[in-house]
Design brief:
The chain has 97 residues and is α+β, with helices and mostly antiparallel strands. It has three helices and two strands. It has a two-stranded antiparallel ribbon. The radius of gyration is 13 Å and the shape is globular. The chain starts with 8 loop residues before the first helix and ends with a helix.
Length: 97
């Protein structure tokens, strides 16, 4: 295991990024993270579930660090249970720029 993670995590992460190669919030392609919508530390059983993953970035494109802002509500100690809906709403707003 990697920090308690499944040995399958690197493979699942890589496959997910191939299928979802852009940030769901800003459309960026740099510094991508595969974010767990239900946090790994609270729901380890969902770690490898594709339904629990969303691609967010840390690139700062358009002035937003999407992973921190949308995935963690500005603090990596928190999580956003509405991350999918929020990413969609913010993507629409940012695309108006």
């Amino acid at each position: 295991t990697l920090g308690g993670r499944s040995s399958q995590w690197p493979r699942v992460r890589a496959e997910f990024l191939k299928m979802h190669p852009t940030c769901e919030l800003c459309g960026g392609i740099k510094k991508l993270e595969v974010h767990h919508t239900r946090p790994f530390h609270l729901f380890p059983e969902d770690e490898l579930s594709e339904n629990n993953l969303i691609t967010l970035c840390e690139s700062g494109k358009k002035g937003v660090v999407c992973h921190l802002f949308c995935g963690h509500l500005g603090n990596y100690k928190h999580f956003n249970s509405s991350v999918r809906n929020d990413a969609k709403k913010w993507k629409e707003k940012l695309n108006l720029w």
